[in-house]
Amino acid sequence: MRAQFVLSEIGVGLRRNLTMTFAVVVSVALSLALFGGSLLMRDQVSTMKGYWYDKVNVSIFLCNKADAEQDPKCAKGAVTNEQKDRILTDLKKMPVVDTVQHETADQAYKHYKEQFGDSPLSSSLTPDQMQESYRIKLKDPEKYQVVATAFSGRDGVQSVEDQKGVLDNLFELLNGMNWAALAVMALMLVVALMLIVNTVRVSAFSRRRETGIMRLVGASSFYIQMPFILEAAVAGLIGGGLACGFLLLGRYFIIDHGLQLSEKLNLINFIGWDAVLAKLPLVLAIGLLMPALAAFFALRKYLKV
Questions:
Q1: For position 214, what pLDDT does the model report?
Q2: Which residues form a coiled coil (predicted)?
Q3: Quick one: which of 52, 71, 60 has its CA closest to 161?
């Protein structure tokens, strides 16, 4: 096979169908950028789960005098010292418990003032209205139900709350956004494949005279198809390269010079550059192979010897 002939045919095909080639490049770039972004979003959610699940606590809130008057769960009155000691002893005996921290009403009031001091409600609260609690760190955050079952409904216990439940709602939202991005990516991928097939067919039709001569002189189907397949592969590779550029720019501007500089998000453990760079070869490989395979199957009916 003469490489010079194949390369010249690729250039001719790309120039003849410049508008459609541009559409293929853009659609491939956008679909693969969404694909790579979805993979990175999945990595980010996994990283956040590993980071935050290790820090979540289970909180056992104890009844105070205000609860005894208003909450049916505390109908037997505010928690006593004997009940607190029994709860603490039982917690320390549980194999799923790692550490236990007791927060007094005064400490809870101080923490509330630090976090919500600007709230209009904070001026009307007093320390005796705050609840004492035990903050429990579990060895396995998935074992929350063991603690909840053991202490819910006990005398002196107002409620047992798991911070992991709040995080699960956040992660479900992020996963939903990820699935939405994948759905848009699939739609863009279908559009890209349709454009590739149409571009290849138009290119084959515009060069039907040359391919007819090649058939007459005995050229093989693969030799005839090769310029068209490589045209699609080159367009897809350019699109894949643009998608990689979008991912790199997104990491640089959105995370490095956006989210990481926000004081409200400085506790989030964002994915690093290594995670982005690891996805680039996959994006490029898909950008190269997907159009080439689409062109190969689209040409089988049109360029048989």
A1: 63
A2: none
A3: 60
Residues 132-142 as b or e (16 or more Cβ within 10 Å = b): bbbebebeebe
Predicted confidence at residue 53, as pLDDT, reads 63
Most confident of 91-95, 183-187, 224-228: 91-95
Q: What is the rounded distance in angstroms from the CA atom of residue 180 to the CA atom of residue 218?
A: 50
What is the C-alpha to C-alpha distance for residues 227 and 211, in angstroms, rounded to an integer?
11
Tell if the pTM clears 0.85, that is, is over it: no
Q: Cα(220)–Cα(229) distance, rounded to whole angstroms?
A: 14
DSSP string, 49-107: HHHHHTT--EEEEEP-HHHHHH-GGGTT-SPPHHHHHHHHHHHHH-TTEEEEEEE-HHH
**Tokens representing 56?**
């979540």
